[in-house]
Amino acid sequence: MTSFHDLHHGADPLLIPNAWDFASAAMFAQAGFAAVATTSLGVAAVAGKPDAAGATRAETAALARGLARLPVPVSIDLEDGFSADPGEVGALVAELASYGVAGVNLEDARGDAGHHAAVVRAVKEAAPGVFLNARTDTFWLGEPDLPETLRRVAAYQDAGADGVFVPGIADDADIQAVLDTARVPLNVLHLPGRTSLPRLAELGVKRVSTGSLLYRAALHAAVGTALELAGRPSLPMPSYADVERLLRP
Q1: Residue 14 clears pLDDT 90, i.e. is over it
Q2: In angstroms, what CA-CA distances link 118 with 5, 108, 148?
Q3: Which domains does the chain carry?
């Protein structure tokens, strides 16, 4: 099996589907994808909890233990690490590494960049073999901020991140600016109608994630099948916000 690190340095971007339970991940692996990741929204939704609220540490760790036995590398979305203590985040990643997890995704949610850099350092010290994808939400939350994105990308790679993830970025010029700053592989989120794998490959993007898209598509297909059986018209595919509204008390 090709190492997870090596998959980020191929001629083509690593297209990595995001699963939400063991069956979805196993199906992606069976379909021939070289690696599988998780979606924090999907994992939270399966548990009936809101995403990005730090409420699914136990569920995420339990799923990671099961997914680690798949025949492909697995990366786990850890939201912000489920703790404000960098040491605790490092200990969690070391635990996942002991299961056989190959990578983790850790987001800054536009919080303090210095703190997130400290988390990156703690994780790399605790689990040096795990591919740490450092996510910045400078394009995902609020107005896109390219200068701040570049500052954070530089800080996280200097702290030891193996890759950087900028969800929401789509314009060629913005992507190129990040690529000019990044010395590590860049991960972007597939945005239907805004990004294409061939163009991202031309630019030099090394990893493309699906985020919550596949989970939401699965919900859409299931509800659509039920509505069809009932002789009722289908509904639009739910957005991230639509699913989140179901999970909030």
Answers
A1: yes
A2: 22, 11, 18
A3: 4-247 (3.20.20.60)
Q: Which residues contact 7 (CB under 8 A, 6 or more apart)?
A: 14, 34, 35, 73
Res. 218: pLDDT tops 90 = yes
Question: How many CB atoms within 10 Å of residue 83?
Answer: 16
d(Cα 165, Cα 171) in Å, to the nearest integer?
Answer: 15
> Mean pLDDT across the stretch 185-190?
98
Give the C-alpha separation, 101 to 93, whole Å.
9
Task: Decide the pairing of beta strands 186-189 and 207-209.
Answer: parallel
DSSP assignments along the chain, one per residue: ---HHHHTTSSS-EEEPEESSHHHHHHHHHTT-S-EEE-HHHHHHHTT--TTSS--HHHHHHHHHHHTTSSS-EEEE-TT-S-S-HHHHHHHHHHHHHHT--EEEEE-TT--HHHHHHHHHHHHHH-TTSEEEEE--TTTSSS--HHHHHHHHHHHHHTT-SEEE-TT---HHHHHHHHHH-SS-EEEE--TTT--HHHHHHHT--EEE-TTHHHHHHHHHHHHHHHHHTT----PPPPHHHHHHHH--
Question: Does the pLDDT of residue 172 top 90, yes or no?
Answer: yes
88: phi then psi, degrees, rounded to nearest 5 = -65, -40
